[in-house]
Amino acid sequence: MSTTTNSSTTERARPAGAVPDLRYGDAEEQLRAVVRDLLADRSPWPAVLARVDAGEADDVPLWHALAADLGCAGLLIDERHGGAGASYREAAVVAEETGRAAACVPYLTSAVMATTALLGTGEDELLGALAAGRLTAALAVCFATMPGAEPSSRPVRIGPPQDGDAPGAARLTGTVTGVAGALAADVLLVPGDGVPFGLYAVDATAAGVTRAPLVSLDATRPLADVTLDQVPGRPVATGEDAASAVAAALTAGAGVLASELFGVAEQCLGTTVTYVKERRQFARPVGSFQALKHRLADVWIAVTQARAAARYAAACLTAGDPDTPVAVALAKAACGEAAVLAAQECVQLHGGIGFTWEHPAHLLLKRAKSGSLALGTPDRHRAALAALVDLPPPAAE
Predict the structure, then answer these.
(1) Which of residues 74, 102, 135 is at a domain's end?
(2) Do 206 and 293 reside in the same domain of the chain?
(3) What percent of the chain has pLDDT over 90?
(4) Are residues 106 and 123 located together in one domain of the fold?
(5) DSSP string covering 156-213, please?
(6) DSSP string spanning 88-150?
(7) pTM for the full model?
(8) CB 3.0 to 4.6 Å from 116: which of 22, 76, 252, 315, for a disulfide?
(9) Which residue has the higher pLDDT, 352 or 286?
(10) Could you tell me the pLDDT band of residue 152, with boundaries at 50, 70 and 90?
């Protein structure tokens, strides 16, 4: 991981206002190759289809191999905590590959969102456990929550500690709906509504914690309603620090999710191009038909633009660039729409087989659609982008 750390340091040192290099570095390509090989070996399409058909949520052995054996859980964690000391650029590359494979792992929710929330909080022990893959965490917010959006209310209330609780602890009560990664988590990071506002670490297996699985569109990324009933929580940040931690986690989550959606789109395009070259009608490959060429050209343009947007968002997150909110909003909108377009065309252009449960096209379509809705829809991100760059609002009809 030393080469990864060096490339990350170079990116972080980029002068303000300089244009980042969006090309993949050697360390990123090496990381991609290792992750892709692992997913191809441990999570081929038949295995994912069988897991979904059986109603199994998370692939624990695969997550352990990705998180602990390859060290992907600690990419964003510095070396003194046992992490790789890498950056969001490397994290985005891994997300691309988990998107391509529709992998049933809590990478985005634990290694990106929860980890980002903990960075800078002084939670050395918790960060060390996450980096080593001994623990998995989830940020207990609705997966539809958009970065930068002010919550109308925070559903978890903070109560006074009870006898025997650790110093500084509080008792948490409330329900958070639609939490991604909650079922696989050992630790929940729960924003609590109180004075001051706080972010609390909660043992996901503690008495009073209920995680109710939801029937969601994407079975490869299960959601759950999390209910807390007088559950002890340990504060990891309070006040402005807590608010900043949650905001950073949502922003990083949206930015890296954009890369995951780009990976979905690229896989759909590649699979479809391969198929139309092989499928023959009227004694010629269907890919030679002009109408199909035009449709695939439109997908290629969308995917190419999505790659640039996703890479720019990852570069801005890495450098702490002031343009990060703009880059993330642009990437999430562009990649969400590109993934849905590519997945829809993948189903359509595969013909009859594309509509069957046995073909993986439906997994990619569901991953694309659910991902486009998560952490802010494309429409909401475009509206936010307009405000960020001082564009006028749409004219009233």
Answers:
(1) 135
(2) no
(3) 64
(4) yes
(5) PEEE---TTPPTT-EEEEEEEEEEETTTT-SEEEEEEBSSS-EEEEEETTSTTEEEEE
(6) HHHHHHHHHHHHHHT--S-IIIIIIIIHHHHTTTT-HHHHHHHHTTS--EEE-S-TTPPTTPP
(7) 0.91
(8) 252
(9) 352
(10) low
32-70 core/surface letters (b: 16 or more CB in 10 A; e: else): bebbbebbeebbebeebbebbeeeebbbeebbbbbbeeb
CATH code, domain with 165: 2.40.110.10
In one letter, which amino acid is 225?
D
224 and 182 Cβ atoms separated by less than 8 Å: yes
Spatial CA neighbour of 139 closest among 157, 156, 122: 156
Q: SS3 for 280?
A: strand
Average pLDDT (71-93) is 93
Q: What is the pLDDT of residue 334?
A: 96
For the stretch 304-326, pLDDT in tens is 999 999 999 999 999 999 999 99
- Cα 69 to Cα 90: distance, rounded to the nearest angstrom: 16
Scanning the structure block, which residue is given the tokens 């290099």? 21
pLDDT at 387 over 60: yes
Do the Cβ atoms of 64 and 181 come closer than 8 Å? Answer: no
Pick the range with the lowest mean pLDDT from 111-125, 266-280, 336-350.
266-280
Domain residue limits at 318? 248-388
Residue that has been written with the tokens 């972010």 in this structure: 199
Structure tokens at 226: 């999390």
Helix (H) or strand (E) holding 309: helix 290-319
CA distance 237 to 301: 43
